[in-house]
Amino acid sequence: MAKRIVILGSGESGVGSAVLAKQKGFDVFVSDKGLINEKYKEELIKENILFEEGTHTEEKILNASEVIKSPGIPDKVELVQKLHAKSIPVISEIEFAGRYSSAKKICITGSNGKTTTTLLTYHILKKAGYNVGLGGNVGKSFAMQVARENFDYYVLELSSFQLDGMYSFTADVAVLLNITPDHLDRYDYKFENYVASKFRIVQNQNKTNHFVYCADDEVMAEYMKANPVRSVPVPFTIKKPIDGDGAFLNGNQFTLNYKQKQPPLIMTIEQLALQGKHNVYNSMAASLAARIVDVRKEIIRESLMDFQNIEHRLEFVATVNGIEFINDSKATNVNSTWYALESMQKPVVWICGGQDKGNDYNELTDLVKQHVKAIICLGKDNRKIVSAFKDVVETIVETDNATDAVAASYKIGKKGDVVLLSPACASFDLYKNYEDRGLQFKAAVRAL
How many angstroms separate the CA atoms of 59 and 278, rounded? Predict the structure, then answer.
């Protein structure tokens, strides 16, 4: 009898896993507590895969040999606890798909910058003519690509939730950008649990694999003292020159060394398409990952100069009567917003708020004092933001929709100001996701 695989959640990763599991001869069942999106439902019907929506029928789930869980479902939910109690393995799509792929995998994680770094790394490999797929938290489902494509390389963005469901998967090149408090609600509000989760990116690595990491991150340095990494470490830093393989900044000069016999790649940071300190880190990480898989330095240089960043990440929307509007809806945690505020050169009307994830806003106080002239709250419950900044910023306006938030910011803003949507919070109190929030913000700006 075929092994029974049950998939919880029917989004991009769930449907991709179902298609791959069916192809590999498993008895497959998909269960989603919500309603299944039409395009995904059509795919399941076309593939003749059994599914249910609007409920989880326990007797159809608790008889699984293995369960593939959507990263959005917390381990704390009762159904997952019941699976654990019955010793039924619960894994992620990445773990499952990794079993059927012999491609080289560059895996990128970090609290901030991972989407940008993943897309930049993918851009470099594509430009170099590599047969490469993009997946994980961005792009198409990794499992679906393993089922239907034949890539030699994958660049995968991995969230801590995806890493939590990975056990025997190995990254050929693991990239860890930074670790700052995020999603602590999923980690019993313990930062050390979240740190350990991020370091799962190096589990199963050995001397034939590489670990690209930020040497300036104190949290990572502390963890690595107690838990030495078994793969080849390749650091990047903006604070001091590095002897040996790695990337560093000296003044405004970016130097990348890999395989010492060859001359280094040297550029100025002004030449980088991505500006701002955090993007120097992202560019270093992506270019090191590309060098490790033998992309030529000339291709890396060109790619770093012509890359175009993603929607909803410090995305310029429009200038209206001299006021610049920027959409950074993807900033769903305090640290992402810190980077956004840090890169602002003009007075800021800051739109923030949403579903709080255990945020500590004190980290932003100094930047808010320096850059922010007014705060527009965009959320159902704004008390925490109001209380954090009421003594720092004179003008704080509360709104609960993008149209009102944009109208209020426009009224307060003057020529030469920037209106920055950088929420520091999840979007689920008012929106489907951060994309929905960003699109509504852009529509409201264009309607001014």
Answer: 49
Where does residue 44 rank: exposed (0-12), middle (13-18), buried (19+ CB within 10 A)? buried
52 burial (CB, 10 Å; 0-12 / 13-18 / 19+) is: middle
Tokens for 84, please give them: 């654990």
Tokens representing residue 102 in the block? 């012999």
SS3 state of residue 335 = helix
Q: Which residue has the tokens 């949403």?
A: 354
Distance (Å, rounded) from C-alpha 99 to C-alpha 121?
23
> Which tokens hold the place of 110?
């970090």
What's the CA gap between 101 and 78, in Å, rounded?
Answer: 32
Q: What is the rounded CA–CA span in Å between residue 238 and residue 218?
A: 14
The 10s digit of each residue's pLDDT in 354-397 is 998 788 899 899 999 999 999 999 999 999 999 999 999 999 99
Say if CB 304 and CB 267 are below 8 A apart: yes
Gyration radius of the chain over CA positions: 23
Structure tokens belonging to residue 123: 């851009």
User: In this structure, are residues 29 and 50 in contact, taking their beta carbons and an 8 Å threshold?
Assistant: yes
SS3 394: coil
Q: Are 145 and 151 in contact (CB under 8 A)?
A: yes
